[in-house]
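Give me structure tokens for this 362-residue protein.
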Amino acid sequence: RVGSGAAGVLEITVVLASGKVVVANEFQNPDLFWALRGGGGGTFGVVTHMTLLAHPEPTISGWISGPITAKSDAAFVELLQRYVEFAGTTLIDPTWGEGVILNPDYGMAHEFDRGLNVMQVGSTFLDISTDAAKAAWEPFLAPLRARPADFTVDVKFSQQPFKNRWHPTTTEAIFDNRRNAPMGYFWWKGNASEVAAYWGAYDGRGVPWSMTQRGNAKALAQGLFDASRTSLILWQTNKALYGEHPEAKERDLTTSINPAVFDNVAFITVGAWKQGKYPGIAGHEPSKSESQAQFDGVMAASAAIHRVTPGGGSYSNEGNYFQDNWQEEFWGSNYSRLLQIKKRYDPTNLFTVHKGVGSEGY
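Here you go.
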């Protein structure tokens, strides 16, 4: 709706490796300013202050939720194709956010029910009525409802004033009831399964808009189906910038984020985890075999996704820890310039993170 978070940064105060404190913005240290907005990993210095661009608050916050179940593998592939085509036409509008999860229980499992064919809708809309949102989704949902032998659709629409979005009810959130906890602290119930999570594996991949169009959508759907056999699949439209507002795109083009994102209609996350597992804590240690099974399943799913998202790229915060060719995957054509700036401001490579700019050989 308003572009990337990186492009919303107007000014940064940063402590360099030399100890010098500098201000970076469009006019002072503009190369460092460019690198810090998308270069990732904290590898250019220690940021102590940022000035951010503010935007008018939306008026309506809407939510679309519920499962769509396909009653055969063939029907699931068809459902996936219908959805990616819908995403590549309707959901590229900045009105829409979040997305869908395929087989949501897979994230916490290591032995999978390969007959599970569930698409859990968890999408948002801004500043349109519930009736308008329903009308926009009806071309996707109506043909599915018309075939009860193949699909079960239980999708609901709701809305509330946006100003209430961060004042959730107990049906939406879990509140922090620890002694002396700050008033109003909470996390969303949808994230509850990730609290105290030990991750077996994780990867993320952009989806080029061209793969949602006729001629390619069937291949993308098959890739999603293959991936869904061994991993949770999270499809999010709000982590891609295809179709963004021209004003937002003008800002985004001044950052160092991976240029692939401008052609991406969605970002896919694959992952698996187990709650309540802590290395070195007696009785709560992760299971090596379980974690290995999760890793193998997610990597198989990742390979299936990569095959059908040519040029989709990724980014360092949600990419594969073991990513090959990470410079290209995380930053694309911007990497060579980022590396030059890194060497200028941190010539001894004091600030180094795993697969961050300048970490070659570490």
